[in-house]
Design goal:
7-stranded antiparallel beta sheet
Length: 170
């Protein structure tokens, strides 16, 4: 099935970094001296791109400071096969101060399947394998994800919270 995102992008196509930067770059931020720590300590946050050839892309997009959530970013991981996404994980999370995986979670989306025999019903959603981890601070909760399946969809979901300054609440 060839899904189309709310922005018209063909679903499950690899992220187009140039397009993402052009459309959403004004919301990106670098933090060269976070927490005013002395030089030499791990105290900088910059956009980070890690790639393992043509099979995986792992990108952190630090965002401008949100008035309620603070210093956050979108962490995008895509795995590819034959030029198409086979797995994606997109997370809007607090990136400073560093906290555990649960506590830094604001919202996330993925397509890792949870429909094997014996899987608790609470983890199976109507849009399986696509799902939305929708509860801040609790990545274990999932619901159906009808509209967010690409990195661009994630930015279209997150950016209105920066424009309004409102907190995200499911």
């Amino acid at each position: 099935m060839n899904w189309k995102s709310s922005t018209g992008q063909s679903r499950l196509s690899p992220m187009d970094l140039e397009d993402i930067i052009e459309k959403y770059g004004k919301y990106f931020e670098s933090y060269p001296n976070i927490d005013n720590k002395p030089a030499g300590q791990d105290n900088a946050i910059y956009p980070q791109i890690n790639s393992s050839g043509k099979n995986r892309m792992d990108v952190l997009f630090p965002l401008q400071k949100h008035p309620i959530h603070g210093i956050t970013g979108i962490h995008a991981i895509e795995k590819y096969k034959e030029g198409k996404i086979i797995r994606y994980h997109y997370h809007w999370k607090i990136i400073s101060p560093k906290m555990g995986v649960q506590m830094n979670h604001i919202s996330g989306w993925g397509n890792d399947p949870h429909n094997s025999p014996g899987t608790p019903d609470k983890f199976i959603v109507e849009t399986e394998p696509h799902h939305h981890h929708h509860v801040p601070g609790d990545r274990s909760q999932r619901k159906a994800s009808y509209d967010v399946r690409t990195l661009e969809d994630v930015f279209e979901f997150v950016i209105p919270y920066f424009i309004s300054g409102n907190a995200y609440h499911p």
